[in-house]
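Blackboard transcription, Thursday session:
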Amino acid sequence: MNKLRWALLGIVGIFSIAGGFMTTVEEAHGWWSAIPGFFALFGFFGCLLIIIFSKFLGRILLYKREDYYDGN
Amino acid sequence: MGIETSVAPFIIMVAGALILPVLPKLSRSYVTLLIPLLALLAVWFAPVGINLAWKFMDYQLVLFKVDSLSRVFGTIFALITFIGSLFAFHVREKAEQAAALLYAAGAIGVTFAGDFFTLFVFWELMTIPSAYLVWASKTEESGRAGMRYLIFHLCGGALLFAGILMHAAETGKIVIEQLIYGGSFSSWLILAGIAVNAAVVPLHVWLTDAYPKATVTGAVFLSALTTKTAVYVLLRIFPGWEILLYLGVIMTLYGVVYAVLANDIRGILSYHIISQVGYMVAGAGIGTQLAINGATAHAFSHILYKALLFMGAGSVIYATGKSRMTELGGLAKAQPVVLLLYMIGAFSISGFPLFNGFISKSMVIAAAGEAHYTIAMFLMTLASVGTFLSVGLKLPFYTWFGGDRGLSPIAPRVNMYIAMTIAAFFCILFGVMPDLLYVMLPFRVPFVPYTITHLTETSQILIFTFAAFWIYRKKVAGEKGIALDMDWFYRKPAKLVERIFTVNVETVFNMAEKNINGIVRGLAVMGRNPVSFFTGKADGSDYNPDDYRPAVGVLIVVTLFCYLLFAGWGWFM
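(Written on the board underneath:)
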């Protein structure tokens, strides 16, 4: 990821957040429509949540050696 | 409507599968392309209504019944069989080719079945050919996984059949119709049987166990047919069963969590079948017209992009012989076209605007919102974040980018490229022109995917999911090992079960055998010379009557003499 790509992504990101202000009243589905950039936060923290939760579950319980079922 | 316009597509498929093995080697691949195209024509030109029925005992078996719902599913099943056959064009093994066609025949047969018996027959027809596509890898692993797959599906089929028999006994009818929510026990049995094939958590493990071990080409058929056939049946029989909404939402997230942990690239894709089918199951659970339309459209889209993803991953495995992210990396230079085509599938499954996932997934989520299932709506949106993370970012990053592992991949075949290109074409076509798909859906419900709100929401989610991934990309790198799943519950106790039902039983039998043999031997020894038992002289010599003749003779003479004596005594006295 070079600087140009980051810049492009940033521009698209800003547009997408700005576009959120164009939501018309009848399209607003609930309280979240009133929060600017709600889905940006949702995407970012949702992604983090999924990574952390899954890996945590893997660490404490689920990860086993590949020959787990062949052993004993 | 002449005869030729209403030939049942399953007849074409079964006939094709049966004549295939006797055809000359070089023509077989062409036939595997021709048959699904003929079936597709049969699906399109068949008129709505019952086209083929058969009176069997007291029941009316409806073998070929068409309506708008079955036509959409029949269309996509035939289309994907064509694409899958093209991807497998270079395969020369007739058993594998015939298995794929028979499997598709089963799926299409289920789709157009009008009664439960017909449905069950085709349901079971899918089982063995699909297991064969796993076995055809011919590794020890695939052999065992295929057997587990088969047992799982036979159990599911038994549940379904038990439910059908009970239903027929209760109602006296076998015609397929909507069942009332929470009604009879038989409905729940049927639901359980269908749920096995729909990979509803916790009955899903057969999928993630077997699909990654199937052949490169077989996995394409597997990814398309079994689960989506079950989705079709759920939509037909169980719309509005609220429990399906909860199960579906659980599936969307369950698949996402496990995909983060998975290391095998087709393992990731398999867990995302569960996740994606979750949207469809949830759609069936919501049961509104928009939800049914959404689930149908999503099944249609999903089959296309999931097959494309499996073909992309399959091309990597074909080219390198490796399937684990920990062994892959840096293939972008060698496989730019595969990467591009895979990414079209990845953008589709992630719901990028202009790709077909966008126009169908949003329909299910909108249906949840419209029916005021707000939490379900947000959880399904969260799952779509996870989809982009694993399928759209992690898998391609660690396969085609990441560290170069010095792999020397061979080039995938031309037919593989063509098949992927066709699937990618349809992914984009329906993404750009959603109305082509919407007109096929069972209900006339207006739905506009391309609104500014929807576009901004989606792009916000995708862009910031990407940002989070990029920052924490090291954290999601593949790790050696496996992640335990529900199969632990039967694979781990397998040793114990083996102990109880095989080892212990054998021990008891061995003991009994030993003791009985001992008794028999003792009796035999005793039988040779019973006298020795009393005399205590166990010299092993056989019984010889001459040894005892004089002694016994004397005894008899003395006895007779005494008798005479006493008789004479009585006479004279």
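Lecturer's comment: Residues 198 and 231 of chain B are 6 Å apart (CA to CA).
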